[in-house]
Amino acid sequence: MSLIGKRTIPFIAFLLFLVACNAASPTAIPSEQIVAPPIEPTLLQPTVTSLPTQVPTTVPAPTETQTLSPTSPPLGGSGVLVFGSNRDGDFMNIYLLTTSDGSVTRLTMGDSNTFPGPFSPDGKQLLFTGFGLTKSFVGLMNANGTDPVDLSDRPTVDEGFPTWSPDGQQIAFTSRMDGNNEIYTMDVDGTNIKRITNNPADDFAPAWSPDGSQIAFVSDRDNPTGVNNLYVMKGDGSGVVRLTNRNEIDYGPAWSPDGKQIAFRADIEGNGDIFVINANGSGRVNLTNDPASDWAPAWSPDGTLIAFQTNRDGNWEIYVMHSDGSEPTNLTHNPADDQMPNWKPVLTSTN
Q1: Is residue 30 one of the residues assigned to a domain?
Q2: Which of 5, 76, 341, 350 is the residue whose CA sits 20 to 30 A from 47?
Q3: How many domains does the chain divide into?
């Protein structure tokens, strides 16, 4: 199945980016089990291109902005979020939301999907997952969308789910280069690749702890194929500890800035909710408890808020709520699908 031709669809499109393009792979691919109505996946034929991968094109400056209803600044110690949206066409592109005035600035454009990852710790760069003719790749660009590069440079391998180490020197990501989904690290220039998980099941979606000592991830290693739970391990892949042990499907771990909690999404009874759990697996709390699907949690820099995507208004929107789940508020208000928020860090240095 070709991936590059997928129309931008709900968040399932991203979590299915590791779908088994290589039929010889013996390992089942992690995939979303729930597609929340009223949105249904739609497939297109592959886009014709002479390149094995397509790095998104920078949007020429000045970029047209779309003004939304202003929110009270600053939100959560930062007034800037990045998110993905198909509001300007069939494909997912990356946008920047400034909460002080509600303006939205488009950072990328292209004829394939581009999903945003997190900002670098210094806020100067942005990771993303891009799509080539048949495979996905880990990309890096400047925070304003300029100079996008393909860090994977492996046109026959699916890769994605990138995350930064706290010191900004390494990137953890998911790759199928060894036949199934495993977690790897690499330097920020794409070199010095190290495999840190080694399991016949699927390990993916890494998230580095704020102190750099641990990486949270999801895996179906102790469950039936595709039933993923939450785990943590040391930065070198040792000392794996299982944090959830339920008949549910967990995705998207995100550490609180103080490293004491992990937010994640759990599908339990046909929809996803945002939960938080202590770093040792205790104190589990459902923050959203909503009949709609709530996915992709992201902590604000000061830890007081959590941004997430939800289809409770009929399409995917970016919401923000207090870290206790109270006062969920729609930030995007757009008929298109807005997904996968990440906050821009607040720099503490005066330099």
Answers
A1: yes
A2: 341
A3: 1
Beta-ladder partners of 85: 93, 338
Question: Are the CB atoms for 131 and 47 separated by under 8 Å?
Answer: no
25-56: per-residue pLDDT in tens?
323 223 332 222 222 222 222 222 223 345 66
Residue with tokens 């600053």: 74
CATH no. for residue 121? 2.120.10.30
Burial 238-248 (b: 16+ CB within 10 A, else e): eebeebbeeeb
In a domain, 59, yes or no: no
> Of 326, 296, 328, 330, whose CA–CA distance to 314 is shortest?
330
Single out the residue of 301, 243, 292 nearest to residue 272, CA to CA: 292
Residue 15 phi, psi dihedral angles, 5° rounding: -70, -10
Residue type, position 89, single letter: G
Domain-embedded: residue 2: no
3-state DSSP of 5-35: CECCCCCHHHHCCCCCCCCCCCCCCCCCCCC
Question: How confident is the model over 245-290, as pLDDT tens digits?
Answer: 888 999 999 999 999 999 999 998 778 999 999 999 999 999 999 9
Taking every pair of Cα atoms in the chain, the longest distance, rounded to a whole number of angstroms, is: 53
Residue 99: pLDDT over 50: yes
Task: Work out the end-to-end distance of the chain between its first and last CA atoms, rounded to an integer number of angstroms.
Answer: 49
